[in-house]
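1st attempt posting a full record on here, be nice pls
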Amino acid sequence: MNGAWFDPADGIMTPFGIVAQVNSSWQATHPSKPVLYVGSGDAGGTVSAFRVDRSSGALDLIGQAKSDSAGTPGGLSYIGIDRRSDTVLAANFAAGLTAAMPIRHDGGVDAPASVVVHTGSGPHPRQASPHPHHAVVDPGGRFVLVPDLGADRVFIHDFDRRTRVLSGTRTYAVNPGSGPRRLLFHPDGRTLYLLNELSADLQILSWDPRKGQITLDESLSIVAPDYTGTKSGAELGMSRDGRFLYATSRGTENAIVVYAVGRGSGRLTLVQRIPSGGLTPWTFSIHRSGRWMLVANQASSTVNLFSIDRNSGKLTDTGKSMSVPNPDCITFA
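the predicted structure (as tokens):
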């Protein structure tokens, strides 16, 4: 895992080398402690907790715990932090499960307090079994929503923040072969956006926080109308004010797509389609200033820097990039 300094005043990335010898498939920072959590693609889906030295960027391992006691080969696709319950939510792609892992007072992580195992499959060769790809707590804190690429479902689990127990299952079904990957709540708490990987389409959804139910409002393709290559939706993100939505199209399109979000309606209007600056834009991260987007172009082994116009939402490729072997997640400490 590599580290770099970022200067948000001038948009300068300065790498300082390897900070940990760990198989990193996803990362998340604690919202108040100087702790970085790293989810691995190794068997068992290990989550490692590292204390961050803010002056040097160095990492010190606090502890590790497995999300899957059976040790299924393949590991995690995502980890996220629920601040209110101090929980790591881990989506184990290989084992087809979602785990709620308690965070200790020192920032370390314990074995799961609760695990839910998914069921289902789809028609695509990659959908022979469930493959959770994300885990999101709803704004009310009562539910955890998990897009499952393999099952063509979004699983909606009840979540008890006091006990960290996941229970019960409702589902929202997408078209067969869609492959749900990323889910995002609008700040209004009533609108959801779902990015499907295999069909590369984006669904605008309504959320009922009392019943924990999803209904479809609209669906649109993220690829260009004349694009005929392999489709692959990858990442989804939003400006802090909820005015703009960003998605990446992998396949061979290698593009970032920008949408304006309709006030009150949540509907999307295409603003821009721009090359990602490299190959296979796996993920991106928007700096808290709202001025910069860092894009992890996995196949070209580069992190590319884009500036963001906060009035229009449009991106500009700065031409600046940083060499990183096969980057798949960018996290600001």
